[in-house]
Amino acid sequence: MQQITSLTNKTIKELKKLQQKKYRQKYGLYLIEGFHTIEEALKTNQSYRYLIGTADALAKLTANYNVKEDKVLEVTDEIASTLRQTNTSQSIFMVLTINQPKSFSFYPGKWVLLDNLTDPGNVGTIIRTADAAGYDGVILNNESVDLYNDKVQRAMQGSQFHITVLQHELGDAITSLKNKGNQVFASCLNDEAVHSNKITAGNAFALIIGNEAHGVSTQHLELADVKTYIPIFGQAESLNAAVAAGIIMYQFIL
């Protein structure tokens, strides 16, 4: 275990940079925070560079989990406060390796595809819901919010370690999924759309959820086999993207 007490320590300076997307991409690393998410990473044997925390936080974690001593950094409260990205930090952090394959072999299953979703809370919530509903994976296109954004990571609550989560070109993913026998549904409001509770999805399908303001893009709508919608009975113009995704995800499997 290494003890670090200086804010000017080189390693600490490098770790702080991971709060920015460009450095996460440059180093191939990202930072997570909080006991629950870190515990999920340890339970699922994720590859990590460092486990960082104050003495009290590390003692609490290592009482229940075996960790690699050579990867543990004990830091002061002051240093922990500079690494935190929440107002109520638990003073425990982990640096993990970004693991995004350059190619991926899609297979028949239950998938959610996110088309230009920009709200990190929505993206994280959808991934967590997909995990809870027993889906195989979630695919974000590159125009969606960065998967390794701290708000996305907090909203996922460790579900990213339970199912496949990829950032991938969506048109290619849709074509590949269809070639593997997955029927593709797109959530939208138009005259061709079928009420979501009228659909029998089976066990091999993909559901496209579109941008919070503009919906599923035209090119991806055209690739879908079936368009589906959730009716609005009140005066609201639309449903929140994560809420809509959750409703349809469960309707498709129940």
From TrEMBL:
Keywords: Methyltransferase, Transferase
Organism, as annotated: Holzapfeliella floricola DSM 23037 = JCM 16512
Highest classification ranks of the organism: Bacteria, Bacillati, Bacillota, Bacilli, Lactobacillales
RNA 2-O ribose methyltransferase substrate binding domain span: 31-102
Family: Belongs to the class IV-like SAM-binding methyltransferase superfamily. RNA methyltransferase TrmH family.
MF annotations from Gene Ontology: RNA binding; RNA methyltransferase activity
Protein name per UniProt: rRNA methyltransferase
GO biological process, one term: methylation
Matching CDD domains: SpoU-like_rRNA-MTase
Record-linked Pfam families: MRM3-like_sub_bind, SpoU_methylase
Cellular compartments per GO CC: cytoplasm
